[in-house]
Write a structure and sequence with these properties.
There is one protein chain. This protein is 33% helix and 35% strand. It is an alpha+beta fold. The chain has a single domain (9-131), classed as Trna Endonuclease, Chain: A, domain 1. The strands form 2 sheets. Strands 3-4-5-6-7 form a 5-stranded mixed beta sheet.
């Protein structure tokens, strides 16, 4: 099979490979954050939970507290924290998704907390920056 060229002379296969690498990096980061939440006494209820067209990276519970966590991953650290990429529009989508999740799963009377985590892979095991009550 020959190579296919897409805008700017970029190779389609390499574009697909980069997308696959990004998904794999995100999955590794989510696994690290899920393990951290479990270490903190939480039960992981769902990962990549869909609520309509919205998604929540990690849904966890600790007693009567629901934790909705947004996870960001970077291959290496740079001049800014990956947490800085979570803007107001993203937090609003996560809040709407959380309300939908709690309603769909019969979680009335449960308090909700919105956390954010960044995993940077400067080393193979990754370094986590976890922020409770982020938004």
């Amino acid at each position: 099979m020959g190579r296919h060229r897409v805008g700017g002379g970029r190779d389609l296969r390499s574009r697909q490979a980069r997308a696959a690498d990004k998904r794999a990096l995100g999955a590794r980061a989510e696994a690290i954050v899920a393990a951290e939440l479990e270490r903190r006494g939480c039960l992981i209820v769902a990962r990549n939970a869909r609520v309509g067209r919205l998604e929540i990276d990690i849904v966890a519970r600790r007693g009567r507290l629901a934790i909705f966590c947004e996870v960001r991953a970077r291959a290496r650290s740079g001049g800014f924290s990956p947490l800085e990429t979570i803007d107001e529009a993203k937090t609003e989508r996560i809040r709407r998704a959380a309300v939908g999740w709690m309603s769909a799963h019969g979680w009335p009377g449960i308090s909700a907390r919105f956390d954010a985590a960044a995993v940077t892979f400067d080393s193979p095991e990754g370094e986590i920056d976890y922020l409770e009550d982020a938004f």
